[in-house]
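Give me the fold.
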Amino acid sequence: MAAHDVPSPQLGSPVGEAAEWYAVRRRWSVVPGAFRTGSGECACGRPSCPRPGAHPVTPDWRTRATNRVEVIRAHWGTHPGACIVMPTGRLFDVLDVPEFAGREALTLLDGMGYRLGPVAETGEGRLLIWVAAGARLLYGLADGRMWPYDALDLRCLSCGEYVVAPPSGDARWVFAPAATSWLLPSADKIVGTVAKACRQIGCRR
C-alpha cells in the first residue's frame, strides 16, 4: 500500500494505518482483534488458541466494527498490534479457498478475462477472494439449503462471519484494494471456476 494512499496523521502502526485506509477509502468497517505477544502466543490467553493473533476478542465485535476514523485511531492507538477484523456479509462476502486451488482459479479467471476485486493470502494456506455481498443467498441458504461446495473445502464467509485483513499477522495482499475496482464480482460469475480449480487440485493429490 503506497504511503500517499494512507490517511494522515500517521498512527505509528502499519496495521492501524491500514485499518484507517480501509475505512476511509473503501468504507469497510473494521474492529481490532487479537494480537501475538512477544513470545508468539495469542493475547487472548488461550494456551492452545487455534488462530493466534487472528480472531475477534469480544463477543460484540460485529456491533463494534466501524469506519469512523476517530474511533479507529483510538482503537489502534491503544493496541497498535491488534489484527484488523472485518465483518463479512455487509459490503462484501469472501470466498475462502485452499491456496493452491485459489491460485489455479486466479489463473483460469484471468484467462477468461474476469476482473477481480481484492484477493489476500492468509499465511495459513488459504486464499481469500472478495465478492459482492449476498453470495450465500444466491444458493437459497435462507431456505435452509447447504452451501454446495463444502466438500471441496471452498467456503463462503458472509453474514455473522469475518476476515482478518492484511497486514495483520501473516496475511498479505495478492491483489490489493488500492489496485482493484470498487465493483466486486458477483459470486455466481466466478464460483464455478473456483470450484473447478478445487476439483482439479484435489484430483492431482
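The first helix runs from residue 14 to 26.
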